[in-house]
Amino acid sequence: MQLYEQKFEDALSYLSRPDILHPTGDKPICYVNYDVEDAMEVYRMINPTLVPKAKYHGFADVRVVSLGNEIQQYIKNHDYHQPEFWGDNDFNEKELFQSIREEILNNNFLSTRLLSIQEEMCQLPHPLLILKDLELLHPFDKIGRVEQIIYNQIQIPFLVLYPGRTQGINARTFLNIYPMDGSYRSKNF
To answer: Which end of the chain is more exposed for a tag (fewer CB within 10 A), N or C?
Structure first.
C-alpha cells in the first residue's frame, strides 16, 4: 500500500510545518483519504507505519482515537443501552436511533469530546491526534459538521483518516455514497 504510505508521509510533512500553516490562517487539520474497500488495510497500517512516521516527523505524543468507540461509549453511558429499551414490545428501532442521533447532535457530543481530548493533549510536547473509524459515525453525525464547529478552536495537529473520494484540495464524498461536499476548510491527501 505504497499509495497510503505516501499519503501519510505528505500529510505528516504538512502538519509538522507550522510555518506553512500559519501565514495562510489554516488550522493544523488534514485528511488522508482512502478507498472504502481499503479500510482494513489502512487500519492495519496505523500502528506499524503511521505512528512511527509521525514520531519521525517530530510528533512525540501520538494518540489514535476511534470516533466509533466514542459514539459507543456515549450510548453505553446513557439510558439507551438499558435492556428494557430493547426488550419492550413497543420498541421501534428507527425511533431509538433517531433519538440517539438527535441527542448527539443537540449536545454537540463529538465536537465537545474532541476539544476535551485536545485540551488533555495540549499539555504534551508535540502532540498529534489521529482520528479513525469515521465509517461508524453514520447515521449519528458527520465529520464535516464536527470540523465546522471546532475548526477555529483547533490548536494541535489533527490527522483524519477519511473513507471516500476527493475532488480538488478540500471536497470529499463520505463512503462514496453521499454527494460531494466542498464545504471543508481542511486539506486532502
So the answer is: N
